[in-house]
Amino acid sequence: MLDSYPAPVLHDTDNGDPAGGIMARDVTVTYRNGHTALHDASFEIPRGTITALVGVNGAGKSTLFKAIMGFVPTARGEIKLLGKSIKEALASNLVAYVPQAEEVDWAFPVLVEDVVMMGRYGHMGFLRRAARADHDAVEAALGRVGMSEFRKRQIGELSGGQRKRVFLARSIAQDGQVILLDEPFTGVDVKTEEKIIALLRELKDEGRVMLVSTHNLGSVPEFCDRTVLVKGTVLAYGPTETTFTHENLETAFGGVLRHFTLGGDDLHHDEGDTRELRIITDDERPFVQYGEKRSASPAVDATLRGTGHSGAPEEDGDKKGDFS
Fold this sequence. Notes:
- Pfam families: ABC_tran.
- The chain is built from 9 helices and 13 strands.
- The chain is an alpha/beta fold.
- Among the domains are: 46-66 and 92-238, Rossmann fold, CATH 3.40.50.300; 258-292, no CATH class.
- The strands form 3 sheets. The chain has a 6-stranded mixed beta sheet with strand order 6-7-8-3-9-10, with helices on both faces. Strands 2-1-4-5 form a 4-stranded antiparallel beta sheet. The chain has a 3-stranded antiparallel beta sheet with strand order 11-12-13, with no helix packed on it.
- The two termini are 37 Å apart.
């Protein structure tokens, strides 16, 4: 029953031009068992942007990815990628995917360079014989992600961060213009996360559109221009600064998040600065919000905007911090 889903609280907060990016209109996906995993989902993402896809497990993030890649049919609605239908975009090799670790058989004996070469299959002929241009594209992609020296290594021998970089290299070798990344920071240390973010920014500057499914709330204001919040439908979308708010996060996560509030008097040497600090976490990298500077110490306003701070402590120099 669709009535069991929450009604959208907010839609477009974005005045950007979505032409040539990702456009979803009233998308509904119902599986064969009758379960409607996503209903009436609408959002628009312009080219040259990085967008976070945020929501609890089971909110419909994976279903949305599958719909964009044509793995599941839509019961109604439409999706356009770079102004093309899904079928046209896939046939043109425009859509690339960086999977979760759980989706890959790491025991399968395949070399790093062969994984990256898979991104070139759509550019090859029927027999999939690699031409000089394909080898050059693989070489350039491996160099760009800093994995050239591992080209002859078995994929299963790599660390979590190295594996992510290999699949990013596959997307680059493919020349994907729409890149879907499913939890790219899971199992990745802070230094590798920073390298991945730097690479995503480069790809953004090249005009590609990236949709990043992530539980890493603290990183979202840091590198995502836009945010799409989902919970059975799209609750809100638009620029991160106006969408990634306390109120919207509460609606999207429905009590899953934990809160810590530190009084302004304990944080600031300036006696006139009594802002409070709110930390919101789902046990990954926390999201930090500052209240407005006031003369008293009231409760933090529920509509505070994220500032982009990501104040997670680090352990052993390379692990994400956690407020527990």
